[in-house]
Design brief:
The structure is a single chain. The protein is α+β, with helices and mostly antiparallel strands. 33% of the residues lie in helices and 22% in strands. The chain contains ten helices and 15 strands. The strands form four sheets. Strands 1, 2, 3, 4, 5, 6, 7, 12 and 14 form a nine-stranded antiparallel β-sheet that branches. A two-stranded antiparallel sheet has the order 8-9. It is globular, with a radius of gyration of 25 Å.
């Protein structure tokens, strides 16, 4: 189920009996349906999904995969496209299987075929638009919501998707899910008012970096091929409650290369200003600094393997530590200089902020 609800892993008969009972009860409580499916547990896999759109005329298009292996308690945290794992031939086989499934079931609208990979296994199909759909939109230039609306209106897919149903990725896109939770306290949900909330500047290729409402100011032109996109439903002064998903926003970046997309993501995360409740932005920054993630060598066990004792803040390099020490020393020196000038001016009957005729 969504976010891992109604799921248990069993390694022996006792765990199977207990896990079955608990999963059945949780599924009934969460979804009103306690039917169970028992399947093989794949250890250390990649979570790969294929986005599809299908019309009423038998046309189905499959887009490049999304890698969703950075997960916490079966809840996705970071998604990217394309995956560092897949070879072109594996990607094409996944797309062809996704198309075949849609045609065999007569599926219509947008949907997502989820799989586990090295060798790939079918996991499930989500018959809806998913949170991370914007990653696919950025690497393909397609508007998935528009496709859904036209399909619902009885229109066929565009000719370009009919002629070439297995689509390729252009550049690299990454999504960060910004949550109202405290990563320093085991990712406990954080509820309350957003006293201050300012988002990074959204960027579109070829446009000026004009500041939108509630966004951090910036100047200059957007670098070639770079996009920063934010999807959110909150605003400064709003309240994050316990009754809904704790997501604050989805931050997406797109660039010609994965390295550039990560770099843009790091800069964008640093522009957030969130006060009033806890958030996972420091944890996201830590993920993007991680060598295994940057090398693309990670699976669904990434968080438990890289943060076995939990998250305790971003670890600075020696060079970064020296840089901060130098910065602190410079600020301390400037403050002392100001205090001495103010004291001297006061002693002479003047003010540090006034001039005499």
């Amino acid at each position: 189920g969504g976010g891992g609800k109604g799921m248990r892993v069993a390694f022996n008969d006792k765990e199977t009996v207990e896990g079955f009972r608990m999963s059945k009860a949780e599924a009934l409580s969460s979804f009103g349906d306690d039917r169970m499916l028992i399947e093989r547990f794949i250890e250390d896999p990649h979570h790969i999904e294929i986005q599809v759109v299908a019309d009423t005329f038998g046309n189905v298009a499959a887009f490049p995969e999304r890698e969703c292996s950075v997960q916490r308690r079966n809840q996705k945290v970071v998604e990217e496209s394309p995956s560092c794992l897949l070879l072109p031939e594996t990607r094409r086989k996944m797309q062809e299987q996704a198309i075949a499934l849609c045609k065999a079931t007569g599926y219509r609208s947008a949907g997502t075929i989820e799989m586990l990979a090295d060798a790939f296994y079918f996991l499930e199909m989500n018959t809806r638009l998913q949170v991370e759909h914007c990653v696919t939109e950025l690497v393909t230039g397609e508007d998935l919501v528009e496709h859904m609306l036209f399909i619902a209106a009885g229109k066929p897919l565009p000719e370009r998707l009919v002629k070439q149903p297995c689509r390729d990725a252009q550049g690299s896109a990454i999504e960060s899910r910004v949550y109202a939770e405290d990563p320093l306290r085991g990712f406990l949900p954080s509820i309350g008012p957003l006293i201050t909330y300012k988002e990074p500047l959204q960027m579109m290729p070829g446009s000026s970096t004009l500041t939108g409402a509630g966004q951090v100011p910036s100047t200059g032109e957007v670098p070639d091929g770079v996009t920063v996109r934010i999807d959110t439903g909150v605003f400064e002064g709003a309240t994050i409650s316990m009754h809904y998903d704790p997501m604050i926003s989805k931050l997406c970046t797109h660039a010609p290369t994965r390295e550039a997309a990560i770099s843009v993501m790091e800069g964008a995360l640093d522009q957030y200003v969130v006060q009033g409740l806890g958030n996972n932005i420091p944890f996201l920054r830590s993920v993007y600094r991680n060598e295994k993630f940057r090398g693309g060598d990670y699976s669904t066990k990434f968080i438990e393997e890289e943060y076995p004792e939990g998250f305790h803040g971003v670890s600075l390099t020696d060079d970064e530590t020296l840089e901060f020490v130098a910065l602190a020393a410079a600020m301390h020196g400037a403050k002392q200089d100001f205090s001495m000038k103010h004291a001297t001016s006061t002693a002479n009957g003047g003010s540090a902020h006034s001039t005499s005729a």
